[in-house]
Amino acid sequence: MHRGMVKPEDRKQAAKAAAASARRGADDGTDGATSEAGEGADQQASVNPESLVRKLTSHKTKALQVLMSDNTHVALAALAHTLVQQLVIGYAGGMHRTVSALNLRANDCDSALKGVADDIEASRAWGELASRLDNWRERLLGDAGRLLPWLTGQPQGTLLELLALCSALSVSAMSGREADTTGDALAAAVGLDMADWWTPTAGSYLAQVPKARIVEAVTEAVSSEKAALLVKLKKGEAVAAAEVLLQGRRWLPSPLRARGNHLGYARGRSIGISPLNPLKHKTRFHEMAHVVFGHTAVADMHDDETLTRQIEEVEAEGVAYLLCALLDLPGQAESRFYIQGWLQGTALPEKSAKRIFGAADRIMKAGQPPRY
Q1: Phi, psi at residue 365, to the nearest 5°?
Q2: Which of 158, 251, 357, 362 has the most CB atoms lying inside 10 A of its own CB?
């Protein structure tokens, strides 16, 4: 007998066995080798049938889930460990992913977004998110094997911040159907107003729609008189003129407007606030101000609809800002941003300022018990 010799007819079988071992290693995250060397390890690995091992480790899995559910910090670290490798680090810099016990799969949609929106990388939102990703990649370790211990050593606030980023990166509301409501609930929950993130320009919208739609947009956002001037212009001239007219008007096409989950509305003498609104008090004051000012006497008003009356929005939000400040409620920074967006650098008329103070005083007094 000559040890180490393999018959030619057995070589193919040996190659198949090696390939099968490699495939098993790829499936379970190992390299196909056993964790211990020697014959004892091989014999130990085959003591129990595969079906029994799966059954036993199923029980182990469930017990692990119970203990992990009791340990929020470890659960967050483990979740972050999986999501960070899939969404933040990826394979950048040649860093390989380590095996995780969590059965999670997450993907970003950047490639898909770039495939349908050639201007997405120039957007404000893309730039802000890219900056945050760069900051995190600088903080995270370049060694995947040390990532989980590093995460478990972080305060919970850091893990929550990182998980929020990972969760955000996995969101996709892209759809070819305008009636698709995917993402609407999330948008309402975070108070998304696309007028803060998108503006109608020739490249973003106007050059890609019929001239009749351009005229409609100017009619909604500016006035019917200004829109009438576009009718006689050629398409290119109408696009250029409309881009100037719509600047600072916060007009949005229907796919970008909030649908179904209004943050708030004023209708006649009634108001309504969405339960998903993160700043209910601020919006309540805003809608009440619309009613007090008489803005709803002519037509219903919704915060998620295009508004043509700049001063009316500034007045209503001015009241909301004053009341939030007087009552020390959250939302003051959001109010300032909202007002600045509508004013677009113009001065608030003195008459409007007086009306704002008057309406705020009326609402404050209405909420106080009567004096006898």
Answers
A1: -70, -35
A2: 251
CA angle 142, 146, 151 (to 5 degrees): 95
Instruction: Provide the whole-model pTM.
Output: 0.54
Per-residue pLDDT of the chain (372 residues; tens, 9 = 90+): 343 444 555 545 544 554 454 444 434 433 333 333 333 334 444 456 676 666 767 676 766 656 665 666 776 777 787 778 777 776 555 556 666 666 677 777 888 888 888 888 889 898 888 888 899 888 887 777 888 899 999 998 898 888 888 888 888 888 877 666 677 767 766 767 888 889 899 989 999 888 998 999 999 888 889 999 999 999 999 999 999 999 988 888 888 876 544 577 787 888 888 776 778 899 999 999 999 998 877 544 444 443 345 788 899 999 999 999 999 999 888 888 788 777 767 788 899 999 999 999 999 988 777 666
CB atoms within 10 A of CB 137: 15
